[in-house]
């Protein structure tokens, strides 16, 4: 079989099915690290139940993203998050953690 491509619709179906089965801690630990930032943003805009669970994650002081999340639309989104001070990119070796508060002062 072909590998499942991560798209908003695939991830939203997956998350919708599992949303009722996972408590808040399991949702954050088991699912969120594997969902693309673009998908998290879309799900927060389209599903009230997921918005409640995703908002604290997206508004946290530290945000961890996947390597594939390095696109301009996500960069613009991340730049506008007022409380974000630390951005971590999975697999990044040169700059694994970015102190955004410091960069904003430059």
Report what the structure shows.
The chain has 106 residues and is mainly alpha-helical. The chain is 52% helix and 10% strand. The chain contains 6 helices and 3 strands, in the order ααααβαββα. It has helices at residues 8-19, 24-31, 37-46, 48-58, 72-79, 100-105, and strands spanning 62-65, 86-89, 97-99. A 3-stranded mixed β-sheet has the order 1-2-3. Helix 5 links the parallel strand 1 (62-65) and strand 2 (86-89). Helix 3 crosses helix 4 (48-58). The relative contact order is 0.12. The model has no long low-confidence stretch (mean pLDDT 79).
Helix content: 40-55%
Biggest beta sheet attributes: 3 strands, mixed
Q: Mean pLDDT, rounded to whole units?
A: 79
% residues in beta strands: 5-15%
Question: Which term fits the overall shape?
Answer: globular
Give the tags.
single chain, 106 residues, 10% strand, globular
In short:
The protein is mainly α. The chain contains six helices and three strands.
Produce the secondary structure layout.
Blueprint (H helix, E strand, L loop, with lengths): L7 H12 L4 H8 L5 H10 L1 H11 L3 E4 L6 H8 L6 E4 L7 E3 H6 L1
Parallel strand pairs: 1-2
Antiparallel strand pairs: 2-3
